[in-house]
Amino acid sequence: MLMIVRLYPKTDVSRVWNYVENEIKDENDEQITPLYATQSEGMMNVGIIFDVKEPDSLSKFITEEIVKCDEVHHTKTVSLMKPVFFPIPKKKPENIQRYVIRIYAHAGNGICHQVHLERFGRPGKTLLGSDSHTPTGGGVGMIAIGAGGLDVAVAMADGPFYLTCPK
């Protein structure tokens, strides 16, 4: 499954980039592989998309590897394919206090197109979703765009989303 980890710096995002370029980009084992790192203009975080075979491996990676970068203040983690629950590692619980693992949708929350309207529907806001019902957000005055899964994944990792407009 694909997962995004956003690294938020204490003060200097360039120090986080240095850590990503020098330490994380070459990480590769059977369970976790970094695929892509990005930072949107003006954003104070670095997003990394990982291919994760076993969810526990990402939790372990965050508490054992990311913690080595003193400039990282906290992280946010987003599952791109399905909700995943991470158990807290028993060996290093003190590191968990520094990081937050977020899951945006849990089982039982409801049908996604209704959840879009109830939780994210705000007049004048923009919604980019990979569900075919995403455009129903237009009914509450949003710009709600249905897109492909990879387009949404890149946007969640702070990458750009381009619209093709007719001439």
Can you tag this structure with a few keywords?
alpha+beta; 5 helices
What features would you describe in this structure?
The chain has 167 residues and is an alpha+beta fold. It has 2 domains: 2-79, Alpha-Beta Plaits (2-Layer Sandwich); 112-157, no CATH class. The chain is built from 5 helices and 6 strands. It has helices spanning 13-24, 55-64, 93-96, 112-120, 149-156, and strands at 2-9, 32-38, 46-52, 72-79, 126-129, 143-146. Strands 2-3-1-4 form a 4-stranded antiparallel beta sheet, sandwiched between helices. A hairpin with a 7-residue loop joins strand 2 and strand 3. 25% of the residues are buried. The model is unreliable at 99-103 (pLDDT under 50).
Layout: helices, strands, pairs:
Layout: E1 2-9, H1 13-24, E2 32-38, E3 46-52, H2 55-64, E4 72-79, H3 93-96, H4 112-120, E5 126-129, E6 143-146, H5 149-156
Parallel strand pairs: 5-6
Antiparallel strand pairs: 1-3, 1-4, 2-3
In short:
Helices cover 26% and strands 23% of the residues. The protein is an alpha+beta fold and 167 residues long. The chain folds into two domains: 2-79, 2-Layer Sandwich (Alpha-Beta Plaits), CATH 3.30.70; 112-157, no CATH class.
Average residue pLDDT: 76
Helix content: 25-40%
Structural shape:
globular
CATH architectural label of the largest domain:
2-Layer Sandwich
Total strands: 6
Could you name the CATH class of the largest domain?
Answer: Alpha Beta
The radius of gyration over CA amounts to 17 Å
What structural category arises from helix and sheet content? alpha+beta
What's the story with the biggest beta sheet? 4 strands, antiparallel
Number of helices: 5
CATH topology name of the largest domain, in short, is Alpha-Beta Plaits
At the fourth level of CATH, the homologous superfamily of the largest domain is ACT domain
Strand fraction equals: 15-25%
